[in-house]
Design a protein that fits this description.
The complex is a heterotrimer of chains A (242), B (62) and C (218). By secondary structure, chain A is an all-alpha fold. Chain A contains six helices and no strands. The two termini of chain A are 39 Å apart. With 218 residues, chain C is mainly alpha-helical. Classes of the chains: A mainly alpha (242), B mainly alpha (62), C mainly alpha (218).
């Protein structure tokens, strides 16, 4: 019994059908608790006022936007090396989710920046990197849409994902070089907990858990759809053959 | 019940509305696609099973 | 390999090969921007490095979709894949040919356009140096994008969407060199980084491009 067992589409469908409801329920629970806790029962920050509440959305979305790309990179590598279809389809399923999280991070960032920095948008390194990340997601999704043969599409998008990861990192450093920026450093990280007071930290943790679970359940759901749609395509092709 | 948001109410409520809106849209789209693909697949599978049965019958008689 | 280089360049130079098109586009960008932002020479001097780099980048993008498409249509790409020279080398040679007919002329014409945009005197040298160092990277990255989209019917627009985000680091460092040069500041750091990108990309990306072509021809 190894992890690769679940790369078999049938095994994956069985397992995910059983797991998905639990993950989805846990994600809804975490999001409702975390966001309600953050929204209703946390104090305002002495400097940022009530806008501190935006961070319960902004930080988890931004984290998951990057992690989604990392997950796509890993699954792309697995597809290229071990040729497991579920892996390629999971990468395809994750891309729109990652793009949505990137957009959430950008939108909440803009709404927060307006009162705090006095502008909706600044060409700050972090903001710019996220915009570039969004472009990478768009290109990746567009390439999946454009190629007809599913295996060719999986191969090409995997190559793009790997090359894109290198360039995304390069862009991150290039952008840092280009402008030092006004964005504060990472305000939430596991080892630098003292940055944030506990009152903000705990609800934020619950929200992060909620976003992680939301990502997992959406990817499971969408991967199931992709697997079904692959099967559908194969059946239709056979029907046409007569 | 509603917390005092002060002068930043627009930004805070806007952020929550925009984010939840995007998430709900994504979830709804994923569910809709899932249901659609599932339904079509069931249809096609039923059709394929029928065709296979017909073929088997024809073989038996022919 | 030399024969391939010569053949590619000849094809590109021939009428309809799009040789002059990139240059004309670059010229148009340099003419249209002052018409758009107004004749304020101080403002133009300030934005000239960025405009020239963006113009060169877009001009480079124009001819990318022809890089493999013609060979794909007439079947010579299949021959290249099975040819005794490694496909990686062939891709690198084709990128080089693309640079020789687009990047190099763009580099040479850029100082003239710098005059139109009122580029400060100190910037000309750095403009030429940065374009000479940076445009090969644009061709190699572009070749990767062209390899990804080679079999597609409507590949042109997708190609731009795929390639433009990959151009970001090159653009940033390239324009930064000219900006600093024009302001009389030290240019060594961005110049070294620009050269590093070109070298790294030229060494590694042909492998990815060749892999993409093999996938597309499978």
């Amino acid at each position: 019994m190894s992890l690769w067992e679940y790369a078999n589409p049938q095994k994956f469908m069985q397992l995910s059908r059983w797991v998905l409801p639990f993950v989805a329920a846990a994600s809804v629970l975490c999001l409702v608790i975390g966001l309600a806790w953050g929204f209703f029962w946390t104090p305002d920050d002495y400097k940022q006022g009530s806008t501190v509440k935006i961070f319960y959305l902004h930080v988890p979305a931004a984290m998951m936007a990057i992690n989604a790309w990392v997950m796509m990179l890993v699954t792309s590598l697995v597809w290229l090396i071990r040729r497991h279809h579920v892996s390629a389809l999971a990468a395809k399923a994750a891309a729109p989710v990652g793009l949505t999280f990137t957009l959430i991070a950008l939108a909440t960032g803009a709404l927060w920046g307006q009162p705090m920095w006095g502008t909706w948008w600044a060409w700050d390194p972090r903001l710019t990197s996220f915009l570039i990340l969004a472009l990478f997601y768009l290109g990746y999704i567009a390439l999946w849409q454009a190629v007809d043969d599913p295996d060719t599409a999986a191969d090409l998008t995997s190559v793009l994902c790997i090359v894109g990861s290198v360039f995304a990192l390069l862009s991150r450093y290039a952008v840092n070089f280009w402008n030092q920026g006004l964005h504060q450093g990472a305000s939430l990280s596991l080892d630098k907990k003292e940055n944030v007071a506990d009152v903000f930290w705990y609800p934020a943790l619950v929200c992060i858990a909620g976003f992680v679970l939301l990502f997992i359940s959406l990817v499971l759901l969408r991967t199931r759809t992709e697997i079904r749609s692959r099967r559908l395509g194969a059946l239709l092709a056979r029907e046409r053959m007569g | 019940m509603m917390p005092e948001l002060g002068k930043y109410a627009g930004a805070v409520l806007g952020s929550y509305a925009a984010s939840l809106g995007l998430i709900v849209a994504l979830v709804a789209w994923s569910l809709w696609r899932s249901a659609k693909v599932r339904r079509t697949l069931a249809e096609v599978e039923a059709r394929a099973a029928k065709a296979a049965a017909l073929k088997a019958k024809a073989k038996k008689h022919g | 390999m030399i024969a391939l280089l010569v053949r590619d360049m000849r094809l590109a130079m021939r009428a309809g090969g799009g040789f002059g098109l990139g240059l004309a586009f670059f010229l148009l960008v340099a003419v249209l921007v002052p018409l758009g932002v107004g004749p304020n020479s101080a403002l133009l001097a300030k934005i000239a490095p960025g405009i020239l780099w963006v113009g060169a980048l877009l001009a480079c993008l124009l001819s990318l979709d022809r890089l493999f498409a013609l060979d794909f249509e007439d079947g010579s790409l299949d021959l290249l894949v099975t040819a005794p020279i490694p496909l990686e080398g062939a891709v690198a040679i084709k990128a080089l040919a693309h640079w020789l007919v687009t990047g190099l002329p763009l580099t040479l014409i850029a100082p003239v356009l710098g005059v139109l945009l009122n580029l400060p005197e100190a910037g000309y040298f750095w403009l030429v140096v940065s374009l000479a160092l940076g445009t090969p990277a644009l061709s190699v990255i572009g070749a990767f994008g062209a390899a990804l989209t080679v079999g597609l019917k409507r590949g042109g627009l997708l190609l731009s969407l795929l390639v433009l985000p990959l151009y970001v680091p090159t653009l940033i460092f390239g324009a930064e060199v000219v900006k600093r040069g024009a302001d009389g500041m030290a240019t060594a750091t961005p110049l070294a980084l620009l050269a590093a990108i070109t070298a790294g990309v030229a060494a590694l990306l042909p492998f990815a491009s060749a892999a993409a072509i093999r996938i597309n021809l499978r």
